[in-house]
Design a protein that fits this description.
Blueprint: H1 2-12, H2 23-31, E1 47-53, H3 58-74, E2 78-84, H4 89-99, E3 105-109, H5 113-118, H6 126-132, H7 141-145, E4 148-149, E5 152-153, E6 156-162, E7 164-168, H8 169-175, H9 184-198, E8 203-204, H10 209-218, H11 236-250, E9 254-255, H12 257-260, H13 265-270, E10 276-279, H14 283-290, E11 296-299, E12 311-319, H15 326-336, H16 339-346, H17 359-365, H18 370-374, E13 380-381, H19 388-403, H20 409-423
Parallel strand pairs: 1-2, 1-3, 8-9, 8-10, 12-13
Antiparallel strand pairs: 3-12, 4-5, 6-12, 7-10, 7-11
Amino acid sequence: MIDELRQRKVSMRARALAVPAGLALAGAARFGGVARAQTPPASNASGSIRLTGAPSSPAETDIVNQVLADFAKAYPNIKVTFEPISTDYFTKLQTDLAAGNVADVFYLDSLPAPDLMAAGQLLALDDYMAASGVKESDFFPGLIKSYQYGGKTYGLPKDFSSLAMIYSTKAFSDAGITAAPTTWDELSAAAKTLKDKTGQPQICIPPDVAREFAFHFAAGAEIISADGSKIVIDSPEAKTALDYYYGLYKDGLATTPADAGASWPGDALAKGLSAIVFEGNWFFPFQEQNAPDLKVGIAEMPAGPAGKADLAFTVSYSAYSGTKNPDAAWTLINFLTGPDGMKKATDLGLAMPSRPSLSDAWGQKFPERQPFIAAGAYAHGWQLGAGGNAFYNDANADFQGLFAGKLDTATTLQKWQQEAENRIKLAPAGATPASSPVASPAY
């Protein structure tokens, strides 16, 4: 169970998943670099298909099997073989894609998705969606945009997790803080009060752009220009955000997990080494196992100069462009991401439904986690375009240099800009600005 929870945490914290050399080129060569045209599904789809994924726990595996049992009753002519992978999921997916032996339908994290989209390795779903009455607006905007490239849609988000401010209610009470901070100024004030009370920094933040970019967007900064034509990561708004985020650490109001003696921010909170972290709802199974008596409060991410912003970490059901049974593959994807299948799958409470129509019911079932689901309407999907995996690695290396005192914020942004320009492949002409997951909203 510990390994499974750690796997979910690593995935949701968006650790880089590098596409091996030659994979994108192999896919482009096999399919001409673009997804082949697809016809709408036949109403009597049949045959055998394979489904693979990386469930976060035995409970999630059981739920998937329950949903698949419902699917078998609804579509008895389609046989689905579920092949869950417990470790090194994306490595196995990459290997199978390169060999042309991948499952017909599979889980796909939003961060590496653009590399597979650009390589023509995913089935375009737009014709199927239109024929089945499935609309983009059925999903939170930042989530569906994470699976769009060149004006096409290559996956439907099965669920998502966002960030929120999780804090120790006892630490707040002891320091006389009566309400969770809602703005950056209020966060700084609370951090000073907590440090005055304890003598130690009480915010725990990592040198990880998968956290800082929530502040980046809250300052009004972007990664890609509104018209999708250029990288705009180095901007005055971006410097405002980086100065603030790093400034918490530089000014002694925040610490890193390593400095605090923890493995990640949630671990620091669970051990009482910090009072505020910015993490996802994946914290709760960890808390249940490691700090069941800890009382926490949850609030939306504090608003920056441009208002509220967040990151949405999501996973899709996507289909292999080389599947021999695309109609059955779509039928399965549509069922798994439909209202009934999604509701059953997200009733565990770990991940949240990607359909706004299910958000109220989910929030009523898990009222203490309402700030997480509220972010769905405005969170930016955690996706950085084709080449975003490689950029993520580069940017985090720079970020660690900043926290080590080897760089300043201006130089860090200059390096991020250059590395993004070198790594990120902008979507081809014809893609709308809305297709960029880092455009204004929404995983």
